[in-house]
Design brief:
By secondary structure, this protein is α+β, with helices and mostly antiparallel strands. It has three domains: 141 residues, Immunoglobulins (Immunoglobulin-like, Sandwich); 306 residues, TIM Barrel; 126 residues, Sandwich (Immunoglobulin-like). It contains 17 helices and 35 strands. The protein has an eight-stranded parallel beta barrel with strand order 12-13-16-19-22-23-24-25. It has a six-stranded antiparallel beta sheet with strand order 26-27-30-35-32-33. The chain has a five-stranded antiparallel beta sheet with strand order 4-3-7-11-10, with no helix packed on it. Helix 15 runs parallel beside helix 17. The protein starts with 19 loop residues before the first strand and ends with a strand.
């Protein structure tokens, strides 16, 4: 790594665009936005741990609120940070402090982590307000990460976006480290890394499972909170962003002086070659600087008033819509530009295929609340790069008016929290659920039909990183978060007190079998439902966190995928694979338009027909009966035609799906169609059947308690 020795006559004005540090082939251009700063210094460092720069350069040129300069002898690998001068008056929202080394918001890579042991330099005692009101003159450069000038050159070898239609997508949510840390046979040097995720044996597993996209928990550079490190914990999930352009160095096997950028690109290229898209879980709704007593790492010290949404009439405090202390000021054009530039960078230069926006409602807020016509949503709609990638909203935040499921624009799909909730309630055995369940498993037309969206706008999920694993959901009556060292007070109590259908069972073996059946019920409901399914990594073979439903701080065996369970639960893994394969072959299970409930003149069947257990079509009054815990439906898919990737025309037939959430068996009368019979292919009491079970039309099928059955009509 070469280091610049800069003399005053070597410094050139440079340009105010693009923002960040960019190697121009002959020197590096530095550009930093700050409207209210009075002076800006660029500090160049030799090593990540250094507190003294090898040179400090005054950035003397300012154009349109951007401070800029060009250093001709600077090269990729150079470490740097900023000191920004201005008034320090927190009660007026002004927090300039040149004693604090600041990260470039546009840095493409960071090296090192915050050294929280240097207490007073970075954080304050929340019980002593006067410490925050007085200027802290202690220098924190040695405790701070450093920004890295990156060489952006990379040979993509013709890599192009896959653009897999949502209707054919199966999303697999995973944590880069947790998924690969214990992967069998993986080179130890690659465990927990981007390169590990792109290793041939890992990709073989993903393609063999049948997923089309990996959704990565946050890979933007994250800074773990000091209070977690003091407890021997860390911010494992990564929802504490310190850099919107920098891939997190924690997952790099290539070092953190720019190697993480190349390694990330190589991962994307290899996944694309395997036919797998890369979706990033992005956190633009808050930053690692937390609330008014939090550390000064970047934005706060560069221009607090511009970057953050301050409380009107009390600019000492921050608006907080996420429970994490602060909110970027999305109504400021320069903050909006920062986020849009970040998204375009990851899509255009890092080749990612889409984004899942954490607590996305926050990004659409203005002074009056959540605005469906907000500048952020409007700009995304018009952007020529981002209009072609997948946009997935987590459509809520934690403040009033934040729950916006079904309200995002036509370009967006959404995590469907109502799907998750109703499926859990139904299989728990709650009464009065079938009416809403019907909406959810047919694509949630009540949520997405009104503004031109199709069923694939609904990202269907039952579990995700946040909460119980699928097996734990069926196994625990209460959360067990003791390892988080908060006396088990953290985490959501929702859907604890599980009744997994063990009525009448007195032995452990019977209870375990019923738990596994419930897991098969969950997986079946997810994959038979219209919409875009999302699996949480390891749920396909009963991954467990020991009942911890808030493992955000557990970078250890609690959260890491235990691949030994793949062998122990090979039958469950095969069950999931078979479902994904079956779903791929049948367009009627992933329709691109909503059911219409009308007759196409084929066997006098509607496109969907709902049935009571006696085989009679559901009438209006049947949906309101609280005691109903069993229903079936027939899908007529013969009107559907689809051409697969090999040019083959896929047609479909008629399918009968039966669901029984009652603890006792219920005889279900099958519809009597002409010239054929029903073949049972799958029953969750057993799994996929090795031999198809024949059921005569109009006959009874014994649907066991807590089970799903799939039957296909055959004319043979």
């Amino acid at each position: 790594m070469s280091q610049a020795v800069v003399s005053p006559n070597m410094i050139r004005p440079g340009k105010n665009s693009p923002l960040g540090a960019h190697w121009m082939g002959q020197g590096v251009n530095f550009a930093l936005f700050s409207q209210n700063a009075e002076k800006v210094e660029l500090c160049l460092f030799a090593r990540p741990e250094d507190g003294e720069p090898v040179r400090t350069v005054e950035v003397a040129h300012k154009t349109r609120n951007v401070w800029h300069c060009l250093l001709p002898d600077c090269r990729p690998g150079q470490l740097y940070g900023y000191r920004v001068y201005g008034p320090y008056d927190p009660q007026r929202g002004k927090r300039f402090n040149p004693a604090k080394l600041l990260l470039d918001p546009y840095a493409r890579a960071l090296t090192g982590k915050v050294d929280w042991s240097r207490g007073t330099a970075l954080s304050y005692d929340p019980l002593k307000l006067e410490k925050d009101l007085a200027l802290d003159r202690s220098d924190d450069a040695a405790a701070m990460p450093k920004c890295v000038v990156v060489d952006h050159r990379f040979e993509w070898d013709g890599d192009q976006p896959l653009r897999t239609p949502l209707g054919r997508s199966v999303i697999y949510e995973l944590h880069v480290k947790g998924f690969t840390k214990r992967f069998p046979g993986l080179d130890p040097k690659l465990q927990g890394s981007y390169a590990g995720l792109a290793a041939p044996e890992v990709m073989e597993y993903l393609t063999g499972l049948g997923v089309t996209a990996v959704e990565l928990l946050p890979v933007h550079e994250c800074q773990p909170e000091g209070f977690l490190l003091e407890r021997g914990l860390t911010n494992y999930w990564g929802y504490n962003t310190a850099g919107f352009f920098a891939p997190d160095g924690r997952y790099s096997s290539s070092g953190t002086l720019g190697g993480q950028v190349t390694e990330f690109k190589q991962m994307v290229k290899r996944l694309h070659r395997a036919g797998i898209e890369v979706i990033l879980d992005v956190v633009y709704n808050h930053t690692a600087e937390s609330d008014h007593l939090g550390p000064t790492l970047s934005w706060r010290g560069i221009d607090n008033e511009d970057y953050y949404w301050l409380v009107e009439g009390d600019p000492y405090h921050y608006m907080d819509f996420t429970g994490c202390g602060n909110t970027p000021r999305m109504t400021n054009p320069d903050v909006l530009k920062l986020i849009m530039d970040s998204l375009r960078y990851w899509a255009r230069e890092m080749h990612v295929d889409g984004f899942r926006f954490d607590l996305a409602s926050t990004l659409a807020r203005d002074e009056k609340g959540v605005d469906r016509l907000s500048a952020f949503l409007e700009i995304l709609h018009q952007d020529p790069v981002l209009c072609n990638v997948k946009l997935i909203a987590e459509p809520w935040d934690v403040r009033a008016g934040g729950y916006q499921v079904g309200n995002f624009p036509v370009d967006w799909s959404e995590w469907n929290g109502r799907f998750r909730d109703i499926v859990r309630r139904f299989w728990r055995g709650d009464s009065g659920q079938v009416s809403e369940l019907a909406y959810r498993i047919t694509g949630s037309s009540d949520l997405y039909c009104h503004n031109g969206r199709s069923p694939d706008a609904s990202i269907n999920f039952i579990t995700c990183h946040d909460g119980f694993t699928l097996y734990d959901l069926a196994s625990y009556d209460s959360k067990h978060n003791e390892a988080n060292l908060e006396e088990n007070r953290d985490g959501n109590d929702y859907n604890c007190s599980w009744n997994c259908g063990a009525e009448g069972e007195t032995d452990d073996r019977g209870v375990r079998q019923l738990r596994r059946r419930q897991v098969r019920n969950f997986i079946s409901t997810l994959l038979l439902a219209q919409g875009t399914p999302m699996l949480c990594a390891g749920d396909e073979f009963a991954r467990t966190q020991g009942g911890n439903n808030n493992a955000y701080c557990q970078d250890n065996e609690i959260s890491w995928v235990d691949w030994a369970l793949r062998e122990e639960n090979a039958d469950l893994l095969e069950f999931t694979r078979r479902w994904l394969e079956y779903r791929k072959k049948h367009p009627c299970l992933r329709r691109t338009r909503f059911f219409e409930g009308r007759d196409f003149g084929l066997d006098e069947l509607k496109d969907i027909t709902w049935l009571r257990p006696d085989g009679v079509e559901m009438a209006a009054g049947d949906w309101s009966e609280d005691f109903v815990r069993c229903l079936g439906f027939v899908i007529d898919g013969k009107d559907l035609r689809e051409v697969d990737q090999h040019g083959r025309v896929l047609t479909d037939g008629v399918f009968l799906i039966l669901l029984n959430a009652h603890h006792a068996a219920i005889p279900f009368t099958t519809p009597a169609l002409d010239s054929g019979r029903w073949l049972c292919l799958m029953d969750t009491t057993e799994g996929w059947l090795s031999e198809q079970r024949l059921v005569e039309p109009g006959g009874e099928y014994s649907l066991e308690g807590r089970s799903v059955a799939l039957l296909e009509w055959s004319r043979k």
